[in-house]
Amino acid sequence: MEKIIDIIESIANEKGLMIHEVKDTIKLSLAKMAKRIYGEEYEYEAHIDEKKKILQLFQKVLVVEESDERLGGDDENYIGIKEAKEIDPNAEIGDELRYELPLDNLGRTAAATLQRELEYHIQRLLEHQIFEKYNNKVGKCVHGMVTSVDGAENTYIDIDEIRCVLPRKNRIKGEKFKVGNVVKSVIRKVFIDKTKRINVELSRTSPKFLEALLELEVPEIKDGAVMVQKSARIPGERAKLSVASMHPNVDAVGATVGTKGVRINAISKELHNENIDCIEYSNVPEIFVSRALSPAAISNVKINGTKALVTLKADQKSKAIGKNGINIRLASMLTGYELELVEEGGKKEGGGAIDPNALKALFGEE
User: How many domains does the chain have?
Assistant: First the structure.
C-alpha cells in the first residue's frame, strides 16, 4: 500500500476526477472490503497518511460501562472502560478506540475484493460526474452525430461521452435524420432509469431550443446587451419571441433580426423554416399584448385578471387571428393572457383561450 497518494493522483488524472473524490472513494472501498473479509458485524475506518503516503485500516470499538450486556462473547465492537483506560488513559464512556489492521499480509481474496469495490465506486463516481455535467446543461444547446434511429423513430445522438435520445415527439414535424447527420438540439431533461443508467433527453420543439439558438447566433444576447424575455412556438410552423434591450444604444429587435434578417433567417432555417416574429417586450401588459398580436394593428387593450379584451378594426381581425388561429394562439402563449377580440362597434370573438398546461403536454414540455 506504499505511495497511495501517487496512485490516487494517477487515477484522478486518468479519469478526470477530483483528487479528494478519489481519496474518499479509496477509503470507502477499503472499509467495504474489510466488512466483506472480516465480517459485516464490525465497524471499520480507512485513513490516508499524507506524510508517509500509506493507506491504513482501523477497526473501531465503542467504549462502554463494565456492566454493559454487549461486552463479552464474540462481539468485538465494544470494549469495557477498564480495558480502554489501559490502552488510552484519557478514554471515556462513549468514545471510539481504533485498532489498526495490517494490510501487508492481505491475501488474494482480500486484494480481489478491494479491486472490485474500488472499480465499482469509481464507476459510480464517474456516473455522478456525468449526471451533474449534463444536468447543469439543461436548456443549453448541444450538437452531436446521429448513431441510430429505432423503429419508433427515436433518434440516438452521441454527444461527447454519452448517447442521448431525441424522441419523435420532440422532433419538428417533417424532420428526418439519418446515421451520420450532425444534429443541434437542446437538453430537455436528465434522469436515471430503473437500470441505474443515465438518460439524456433532447428536444428540438422546446421554446428553450429557440432561445439557445438565439444566444449562439446573436452576440448581443450572449453578451447580455439584449435579453430574451419569453418565447412561444408551434414547432415547424411559427414562433414569437419578446426581447428587451439592456443597453440604451442597442436596438433589441434590430440586433436579434440582424441586417436584412440574416440572423433570424439562419435560426429559421435550423428550425425547418419556422417563421419567427420578434417583438419588443414591454412591462405594460396592454402594450405587450398589442405588440404580441402583430402584424395586426390594435386599437385598444383592456386587462381584466387573466383575460385581455382586445379592440380592433374589422379588417385587422383576420391578421390578429392568423391562419388556423396560429397568431392569436402564440400571442396568448407569449403574454400569458386569454385573448378576446372585439371589433370596433361589433361583436366579441375569442381565439386565445389557451390552456398553457395542455400546450406544454402537446409539445412535450414540463
Answer: 4
Question: Rounded to the nearest 5°, which phi and psi values hold at 121?
Answer: -75, -30
For 344, phi then psi, to 5°, come to: -60, 115
| Cα–Cα distance, 184 to 188 (Å, whole number) | 13
The angle formed by the CA atoms of residues 182, 185 and 190, to the nearest 5 degrees, is 120
Both 186 and 251 in a single domain? no
Give the range of the structural domain holding residue 84, as residue numbers without chain letter.
Answer: 4-134
Domain end call among 146, 173, 204: 204
Sequential pLDDT tens for the chain (366 residues): 446 677 788 888 887 888 888 888 888 888 888 888 777 777 888 888 888 777 888 888 777 777 776 776 666 677 777 777 777 777 778 777 777 777 776 677 777 877 888 888 888 888 888 999 999 999 999 999 999 999 889 999 999 889 999 999 999 998 999 999 999 999 999 998 877 789 999 999 999 999 999 999 999 999 999 999 999 999 999 999 999 999 999 999 999 999 999 999 999 999 999 999 999 999 999 999 999 999 999 999 999 999 999 999 999 999 999 999 999 999 999 999 999 999 987 655 555 444 444 444 444 454
The CATH number for 99's domain is 3.30.1480.10
Phi, psi dihedrals of residue 348, rounded to the nearest 5°: -80, 150
